Amino acid sequence: MAGWKASDIPDQTGRIAVVTGSNSGIGYVTARELARRGARVVLACRNEGRGREAAERLVSEVPGASTEFVRLDLGELDSVRQFAAAYEREHGRLDLLVNNAGVMALPYGRTADGFETQFGVNHLGHFALTGLLTPMLLRTAGARVVTVSSTMHAVSNIDIRDLNSEGTYRRWIAYGRSKTANLLFTHELARRLAAIGSDVVAAAAHPGYAATNLQTAGVKMEGRTAAERFVRVGNRYFAQSADSGALPTLYAATAPDVQPDSFTGPALLGWRGAPAKSWRASWTLNDRAAQRLWEESERLTGVAYDGLKA
């Protein structure tokens, strides 16, 4: 793993990948580098204009790349179901699902289905998407699911009694809980896959501190110009690039030695550098918490994982 870089990605010819939130940032870089190595990449993005522009930009950067844009809004379960149904009709198989899209530290809000926005988009949307695509993953040899979490999961464990932050809302606590949920989801998914003897690998990754649009979205929504300037200065002088931030995701998605339920991040204090095994809070490995979150997620989304019962 030491010194691993994008040029070390194995040949992906013949593989199909879905990357959520791939119109910018580490999602775009992930999609571009997978396409560069021969994968057909589906850019699954909420904004149609930005998604189509990203697909055009990708082809301009990687001539001959096989890519397409398909709209997916993780804040609308109807959109998730429509995406999954359309994808299965068109492709029928899936080698790699990268659950990358996310929102961070937003003012309090709710998704179209009434979930707190960060929990709804970051966890529940991806939980539903993965569940609906699982039949294709199970019948595709060597398939993987990579879910992008964050070191900020360490801010807070989930509160199973208040998953939608209906009590006191604190944006960073809510974000940390959603990122903990990503890791608990990976933990339980890996356990269930192992229980049926599947070779599908469920792993997680995080980008460290990478300069993307994610950091500025919340403050821009509130018109906090001073805070936005502060964040932009941090991104410029302290963050690593989106290209570097995508490396842990790309490693988890393609490296031959990736283990189920592993968590990959930058080597240097989890902040920057080449991919390495990452520290994670002990609560993200709690079997009972992962099972309870899974059960609640099935209830809230109405998506049951066929073939992956407890």
Describe this structure in words.
The chain is α/β, with parallel strands linked by helices. It has one domain (9-211, 243-301): Rossmann fold. It contains ten helices and eight strands. Strand 7 (263-268) and strand 8 form a beta hairpin. The radius of gyration is 18 Å and the shape is globular. It starts with 15 loop residues before the first strand and ends in a 9-residue tail after the last helix. Belongs to the short-chain dehydrogenases/reductases (SDR) family. Keywords: Oxidoreductase.
List the SSEs and their pairings:
Blueprint: E1 16-20, H1 25-36, E2 40-45, H2 48-61, E3 66-71, H3 77-90, E4 96-99, H4 117-138, E5 144-148, H5 171-195, E6 201-205, H6 214-221, H7 225-237, H8 242-245, H9 247-254, E7 263-268, E8 272-277, H10 287-301
Parallel strand pairs: 1-2, 1-4, 2-3, 4-5, 5-6, 6-7
Antiparallel strand pairs: 7-8
| CATH class descriptor | Alpha Beta
List the secondary-structure elements in sequence, H or E. EHEHEHEHEHEHHHHEEH
- CATH A-level architecture: 3-Layer(aba) Sandwich
Give unreliable regions as ranges: 215-221, 223-238
Estimated radius of gyration: 18 Å
Average predicted confidence as pLDDT: 91
Percent in strands: 5-15%
What characterizes the major β-sheet? 8 strands, mixed
Provide the domain count: 1
> How many helices?
10
The fourth-level CATH homologous superfamily is: NAD(P)-binding Rossmann-like Domain
The first-to-last residue Cα distance is 33 Å
Strand order of the largest sheet: 3-2-1-4-5-6-7-8
* Content-based structural category: alpha/beta
| SS elements, strand count | 8
Question: Any idea of the CATH topology?
Answer: Rossmann fold
Name the shape in a single word. globular
User: What percent of the residues sit in helical stretches (DSSP H or I)?
Assistant: 40-55%
